[in-house]
UniProtKB/TrEMBL annotation, chain A:
Residues 113-126, 407-433, 497-519, 526-543, 563-574, 612-623 have a biased composition (Polar residues). It comes from Mesocricetus auratus (Golden hamster). Residues 708-721 have a biased composition (Basic and acidic residues). Pfam families: EH. The gene is Reps1. This is RalBP1-associated Eps domain-containing protein 1 isoform X1. Keywords: Calcium, Coiled coil, Metal-binding, Phosphoprotein, Repeat. The keyword tRNA processing does not apply.
Automatic annotation (TrEMBL), chain B:
May play a role in vesicular transport from endoplasmic reticulum to Golgi. This is Trafficking protein particle complex subunit 2-like protein. InterPro entries: Longin-like_dom_sf (IPR011012), Sedlin (IPR006722), TRAPPC2L (IPR044760). GO terms for biological process: endoplasmic reticulum to Golgi vesicle-mediated transport. Component of the multisubunit TRAPP (transport protein particle) complex, which includes at least TRAPPC2, TRAPPC2L, TRAPPC3, TRAPPC3L, TRAPPC4, TRAPPC5, TRAPPC8, TRAPPC9, TRAPPC10, TRAPPC11 and TRAPPC12. Interacts with the heterodimer TRAPPC3-TRAPPC6A. It is found in: Cytoplasm, Perinuclear region; Endoplasmic reticulum; Golgi apparatus. It comes from Mesocricetus auratus.
Amino acid sequence: MEGLTLSDAEQKYYSDLFSYCDIESTKKVVVNGRVLELFRAAQLPNDVVLQIMELCGATRLGYFGRSQFYIALKLVAVAQSGFPLRVESINTVKDLPLPRFVASKNEQESRHATSYSSDSENQGSYSGVIPPPPGRGQVKKGPGSHDAVQPRPSTDQQEPASPVVSPQQSPPTSPHTWRKHNRHPSGGSSERPLAGPGPFWSPFGDTQSGSSAGDAVWSGQSPPPPQENWVSFADTPPTSTLLTMHPASVQDQTTVRTVASATTANEIRRQSSSYDDPWKITDEQRQYYVNQFKTIQPDLNGFIPGSAAKEFFTKSKLPILELSHIWELSDFDKDGALTLDEFCAAFHLVVARKNGYDLPEKLPESLMPKLIDLEDSADVGDQPGEVGYSGSPAEAPPSKSPSMPSLNQTWPELNQSSEQWETFSERSSSSQTLTQFDSNIAPADPDTAIVHPVPIRMTPSKIHMQELELKRAGSDHTNPTSPLLVKTSDLSEENKINSSVKFPSGNTVADGYSSSDSFPSDPEQIGSNVTRQRSHSGTSPDNTAPPPPPPRPQPSHSRSSSLDMNRTFAVTTGQQQAGVVAHPPAVPPRPQPSQAPGPSVHRPVDADGLITHTSTSPQQIPEQPNFADFSQFEVFAASNVTEEQDSEADKHPEILPTEKASDPATSLRIAQADGKIEEKTAASVPANVSKGTTPLAPPPKPVRRRLKSEDELRPDVDEHTQKTGVLAAVLASQPSIPRSVGKDKKAIQASIRRNKETNTVLARLNSELQQQLKDVLEERISLEVQLEQLRPFSHL
Amino acid sequence: MAVCIAVIAKENYPLYIRSTPTENELKFHYMVHTSLDVVDEKISAMGKALVDQRELYLGLLYPTEDYKVYGYVTNSKVKFVMVVDSSNTALRDNEIRSMFRKLHNSYTDVMCNPFYNPGDRIQSRAFDNMVTSMMIQVC
């Protein structure tokens, strides 16, 4: 075949036809059936058609390739122009009009003719050009129209396709025509294309809604109609908006031409994405919409509330149901307000509806609100892009009849969106459950968190705090401290000693650690009491403030700290505890150096203790023995002298039994005050003396109390003796500790362990003492009640 | 999945009711009507607690031989009633919940439409499509 040269118009036209015939979307071969229909629509004799087919080579090949198709079309044009069909005529015939295809629906033609009659401008040498578009439209709409004219049986098959295809074809034709108009001013026939489809609209609109796609094309393409339609908003809607459109279009060719120029710019894109054209918004339309938007909402980035939009669109006199549907389509984000995009989409839909187009089931692509600023002309350009974006959803709008496809399309969306919603709500619900959980968990923490006084600090301050914690949760402490009891007795003893040693510096360690220890010897008890007192006097049960870890200077002071502890313990125990001591835990090494500080330490300790425990008898009674024990322990620990300890250990047991019942505290005090065993032996006497000597007034009191409560305390003393025995054991083990130390890590660690154990022991002792305190208090209460009972009688 | 879906207004008149088998619609209408009593009972039972704490999904209202009726109430006392075929054992509670959620979302979309007057029958196409999708799944 000869090479085929086509003009631009022809090229586009042919490509459109080819795509129309290419229902299988092969892009290479057109279906013979469709081609044959096309040729038949060309109103050519069959023999001519056959000749054309032979010439183009289709019969030879058996199919219509693109080249064959184009050649065939060219030949059709040639034939229609009256030229003889020759192969050479393809290129030789210049200025060939586009092939003309007319629907075989004669009724339509007649209708068109009648409607055209009203158009004076239906004519033109380019009728060849003009008719094709309407003819094409006819062809498309013919198959597209379900009810009206369907002589062809194949229309049923084409029905589903034509609604899709027709929009493809008709739009390009319009640009064709308009373009032609621009080039060939001879055509007042500009109206023809409009008029052509125009009449189509009315019959099609009446007969069936399937052709709305094609109609939509025109409504989308024609700017004058919108103007009139817009006017109709305020006025009563013209009954035949379509016809009014045409006269207007007829009268205003320039407008058409301007539109045509605009459309031609987009022609190519439209051809590619023609099926979405019905819903495209032209620039003029867009501008009009924007102006209307401004009348309601000056801010273009703002929203139009639903009520205002309702009023505005109600003016269009459309039924509320349709307006509701338009709203559903256009309110993309379902927020009850219209943005500029949404407003334009809604407006466009209203215009389309007023023009007779049925509303789509789904918002067309071109009407979807775009992210970019729509005021730019780029919108129009973008629209085709969006249009060509997805074919399937675009099919939905033009197709009225297939409700199922739209459903199918909405289905996955619904499912997806619903899935999203589901996950969202599930997440939210789960978050709610989570929050509920959290709220439940929260309150439980404070107590438990505080209960664990694990971080045993060596510094007295920390120890003090820990002891406070331990006191608060005395029962709990027994548990954590019990493991400490499990430790080797040696270690425990050592720890106790150390803890007791350190205790005086802070008066906290011992109590905190050794609450559960079986060790709760005097020093521990004293320490615990002291700390308790201090806690009472000083800080309120603040479990929440575990002091920061001490900088560990103490470890270096294993010896010295122990000495301090001994001092404090010695002081406290000596002064306050009377019967508890029994055998001062092994070795209260009579630290002479501690003696001086001992009493001094003891004084404040005692003072504090006395201050806090100003309550008479029962409260102090249990404490005193403990203090006594502690003092003994301190004395033992302070010594840190193996010899002394040994000696003291030896002596203490001796002392203990002797002083048990009578003045354990005194003995302790003696030990503390004098730091000598001899003093201890003369505990009873010097105890008193020491009490007296000790510049502290309080000390005597506890002594007296001790004396008074000795009997009461005997059982306690027995217990304490046991504890002191443990202490003694501990102290005995202490001698093994090198004294020089403070530098060896082992010593430090050992001292740490010892202190820990002593702490546990003291903690346990503390709990026990508290128990005793409670019992005593109960007794007191009962006694007071008895007193009260007696008083009235006395009064009487 | 559902055989019949109904949206009942606060005043206990139907805003929307649709059933799949077009025959015997009256039977479904009657079932929905009787289920309203159960719904009210469930609402009042939880009346002590704040409305917020009350869960929207009511669950199985009552089963019959052939059908099971599920209920869902919004905070504005709009009730969704769904009748499900008992033979459809594949339906789990979560699925029913998701269906009600979809219904609720679609209903709120309908309410957002300024052209919709609360109390009118729901004639939204989107809502119809959504309901159809739920009911078509059954078949």
